[in-house]
Amino acid sequence: MPEDSNRDAYNIPPTRTPVPDPAEFFKTVCSYIIDAPVTFVREWIERQQAKNKHYYYHQKFRRVPDLSECLEGDYLCYYEAEAQWRRDRMVDKEIVEIVRERLGACKQREGPNQFQNCAKEAELLVQVTKAYQDRYGDLGVHGNSRTCLMKQKHRMMEERK
To answer: Could you tell me the CA-to-CA distances from 33 to 41, 44, 81 in Å, in that order?
Structure first.
């Protein structure tokens, strides 16, 4: 009895067992059964990957001598210069494509105002395309570093005249 009198004196409500909320119970069970193991495995995988972190960047090739710098009969130098020329051609082709895509995106974005707002991109495309055409134009599908070098030599001779 003295307990009840103390409760009344301090206005403490009587103790009751709380009714469990089914949604809260389901959430807690799912947290322990599904979320905890998945989180543990993911964090473990991330720790393992952090230990063995590899950076994947573009492959960097060393610059080799140009075909004009190769000694006569040095076939390995010829091959390396040809491979270097092919990589340079692919890079230049991708540059032209990227600039072309930027111009297309600008035209799409600007709509009717494309002629005044995309003039910078259009001028850049003209310059890049002209540079690509000057270097690789008229070589055909089977063009190689030797024919490109000869084309460059002939162009330089014409400019001197």
So the answer is: 13, 17, 61
Q: How far apart are CA 51 and CA 44, in angstroms?
A: 11
Residue the block writes with tokens 């001779």: 157
Cα 139–chain centre separation: 31
- Rounded to whole angstroms, the Cα distance separating 161 from 149 reads 19
Name 100's Cβ contacts closer than 8 Å, sequence gap at least 6. Answer: 125
Q: What are the tens digits of pLDDT across the range 87-120?
A: 999 999 999 999 999 999 999 988 887 888 889 9
What does the domain layout of the chain look like in residue ranges?
Answer: 2-51, 67-160
**List of residues 6+ apart from 89 with CB closer than 8 A:** 136
Q: What count of Cα atoms within 13 Å lies in the side-chain half-sphere of residue 45?
A: 6
Q: What is the pTM for the complete model shown?
A: 0.59
